[in-house]
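Follow-up to my earlier ticket, as requested here are the two runs.
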Amino acid sequence: MTHEGFDRSDATARARASKRAANLSINSELLQQARALDINLSATLEQALQQAVRTRQAELWRRQNLHAIAAYNDAVEAQGVFSDGVRAF
């Protein structure tokens, strides 16, 4: 399913995407502990970034659609939904 150019079915293609070196700064004690525990820094950062990107994309989507969602909710409140007389629950 595509949402704002994001296709979840393309997850395997993203996993195979080329890697690119990046320089970052990190707390030296934390880095030392991670290395001592054999934590894969690249994989850990990539997972954290994926989650951060998903979170930010969701926040952006909510902000961009806030007015449409409010308008829909107002319409449902005023007019109800098509199944109001049909539901048994």
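Run two:
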Amino acid sequence: MSDIASCAPDGWCIFLRAALRQSAAGSPESYASLAKDVGLLVKILRNPAEQPDELKFRKIKLSNATIGRVLSHPGARDVLAACGFVEASEGECLELIEADRALLLRASQEVEAVQYELQELDWLYVNRAATASPIPGRPSEPWSADGAPAAMAHTCVTTLLKLGAEAAAKGPWLARLSHMLFAPEMVECRRLVRERASVLIMALRAIVLELIRMLEMGALSTALQCLAFLWPAGAHDTLAARLEFCSSCLAAALSPADAFDESPPLELKLRLVRGQIVSSTIGALRAFSETGIRCGVLKQPLTIEYVGEVGQDAGGLRRMFFDLFAHELAVHPLWTLTPTGSLRPADSFAAAARQMTISGELEEHMRTVGRVCGMALYQELHRHSGVQTLVDGERAPPNLFGVAFARYFLQVVQHAPPDSLAELQAALAAETLETHADVRTSPSLLDRPLSESGLGDMTFVRMAGEGADALEVELVPGGSSIQVTEATKHEWLRALLHSELVHSLTTAAGHFRRGLLDSVGLSGAVDAFDPVRSRWTCPHFVLLSAGELQSTLSGAPVGLSCIDELRRVASVHADAAVQASWLWDMMLSVDDRTRARVYRFVTGSSRRPADGVSAFQINPREGGDGAYPFAHACASVLELPRYSSQAVLRERLQAAVEAAHDKFTDL
């Protein structure tokens, strides 16, 4: 027996790999059969670890020809001996007297790493024509030193670049790239692949677009995982490029008949009731069949018409629809606001206490909200493609929700919820006002004894809801009888925050996600509740962080800096210069709520776009103190009568803003 018994399991991996590579040094065509045999060795180790009570897995008959072949390879029998297998029945079998599950699992993982490396070498040998690199053949040296990783990485990247638009043919190579990027034993390959990240990102982008058109879900999932690894969400310097690519993915998901370069897209027209925008939107979208949804009706350019109003939608009514839709959600019983004013679904446990969990109502409502979010993303595609342009050729302003969705809610929607205590505390802190800090976000909370923190008599429960509707929710099974101790306070705080920020949102987020995928997903090909398939086939879920998705949907709150920006880009007619100066003075003196309402009056949205405002015009309007301002929100143009004072301007402008909020009108 070799010295393997004195090594740790990771040492066995090196020994076994070197021994097998030595045996195959002169016949690289045997890598495939070697990999298969090592796979059987993995099963021999894993079976008794996973099912220790099954006696059949603890005896290996040496008379079995397949077993004999596996154990004939150098190092294989040594690994079994080191794990506790001994000869029994006069040498007819190997028997495991006592199973050390941890040791067996560790050994199986290390041996499996050898199997993967042999598979990589086989791929390299089979596709040796794709690279000038020789087959590595120095088995006595460490894996990372004998040239194999460089040859593997070069072959994989070169092949992906050479196959052009043949996305279907790239499936096996995408699987190999994924293995190099994520398998622990591929660290050297991973480093070498990263060195060619820029060209590989370009290739993967083209592959993703083609796979979306082909509806190849499995390969698309693999390609997006690789792309997200090399082109991670959250990097500020790549945000614009990632947003543009997400838009390209939306275009790729359109049916050929909807392609912009072939014919103008169809129109999606919603007839709504002002003041009942959410409920009338639910009713309007209910009219579309599931077949129509799968065929892409929600992906079309949107126009809005309000019952009893004469206004025609040149873009302003559409933008105001998204803005007002979110503001109605803010007062809807199925939603609540965080301390910073962001939207999150009502706590599912609190809703249950108030008997608000009529599943059909919740499902349809949340699915509709998700659909409207997806529609907003598609309107941005049409805006950037030129479908939604103004008469003078200017691009229309963006379509934004008037209230942002809480970042942690969007993380749940993306199937990437905060999980660790630090992540949960950061998620809560992001929705907490600095002036009213939540003590649970403080890193020092758990550094003090429970008695000093006011947590001396806590159990693993939390209260959902308020007053008579309050409901006790157990954080763990039997939590009401489990006292929080110094040893368990970290576990308690994590369970508490996870229940509030993740678990209580899961059902609503699932229905919301389903609606979002109705709009931006791939023709009903994805189950919204499948955490792998629905996440890794939606570019907006993996290439954008929750914060970036939040900003894309809702922009930023309107404050003084937004007014300064509006003033910088404003084009003011000479005949309206005096009134314009009064307007700026007024906007500096009012509160943010009033600024946001005036901002919506002139742009159609009460939120600032993520990329800012590029144009704003102030023109004169006929009339004096008795006339009202008029805004063309479709073009961000404000017409001001020749008022005699700032006080008159303020009074007339606020009246016009309030009237426009209630209905389309030309005062």
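The only thing I checked on run two: The two ends are 96 Å apart (CA to CA). Let me know what else you need.
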